[in-house]
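Record Porin, 427 aa.
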Amino acid sequence: MNRMRTKTAVYKVFTVSSLAVLISAQAVAGTVITDGPDITIKTKGGFAAATVDQAFSFKLGGRIQADFDQFDGIYTKNGKSANEAYFRRAILEVSGHAYHDWQYAFKLNFADDGSSKWDEASIAYTGFKPVKVKVGRFDPDFGLEKATSSKWISTIERSVIYDAGDWVNDKQDGMGIQVSGTGGIFYGSAGINRAKDNEDSDGSNNNTYNLRGVIAPMAEAGNVLHFGLNYAKRSTEDFDGRIRSRLGVRGTTEDKKNGNRPVLASGQGGQFDGDTAWGLEAAYARGPFSVQSEYLRRNIDAKSGSVMKDRQVDGYNVQLAYTLTGEARGYKLSGGKFDAIKPSNKQLGAWELVYRYDDLTVTDADRDLTSSFYDTEAKVHTLGVNWYANDAVKVSANYLKAKTDKVMNTKGDDNGDAFSLRFQYVF
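=>
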């Protein structure tokens, strides 16, 4: 009971603190320079303080994303309509740098039940310019849409293809080290991550290895040409090889009673011991228009003598986006990612339309009654609209239509519809 009260208290403190920061940010805008120490303070969009020579800095910010999902068919166990409202993210961020060459980032994510979890806790050294070395807890670098912050992706949830293997770009509550660098038209990164509770028979932690390379001959807002290549491998002795997907709707797992997370390949404990993935990414943006696509392949190797066959997972997506009010999506070569849309009219805001198609296929997923192996597939269409009311507020609405092959809920449904709504405040 005391532990629960403590968690609730922490959550309330976060909420009150966040509101205080937001109110102060709106009440006081601009830059103030003290008449004593050479410190610049900014209160527009969070709170930031830095020495004039940029040797030291501190920034307090965060994001709140409140979601509502309505879904039916294969999205639920019984096929009937269900809905869920929840905080997708409530993150408090502290970041900055010290002695010019050291950077730090701490992001704490608060859940609905009052618990909290480190979304990131890292320290980086930038003295080897243009190379950056980062250590701590952070997401491995794999994929264009994953590299783009959840604040600025064009759909509410990231692509279904990432359900092919979450380990390729998820920290898995472990620790890691990453070396990255930007030069000319190139960006690249290489990292090693040790996931929590992934140990070999001797008790030593197994590792995940990531490589990502990006070339962007055009790399500015409204003028982007981007190509990327990814590779990931994890050392593991035994895993079940299960593949499942939310089909683009997070509420299916937030709804513990009737939400359905379709299984495209069932878990077979002790049957698999090899796991690799690679991916391709491409994007083009011209003015308010952008198109991007990613391909991901994961190869799951069955153990020698296993009753299972090797599994191959293929996923791809194509996304089109257009800003009706004329603004371009931001882009950063450092990190190889898209960034925020900044509305030019603070009264009207910026309005963006988006369409995405996702396809995820598992080859030799499972066996039928005759012991013949069969393939499974999921296809999802997403149509959405985003309203960037200002630099802090974003409202998003998505309609999703899913269709699966050889995958059904308990009532035999192999298709479903969903509507998702998000209110976001960034400070």
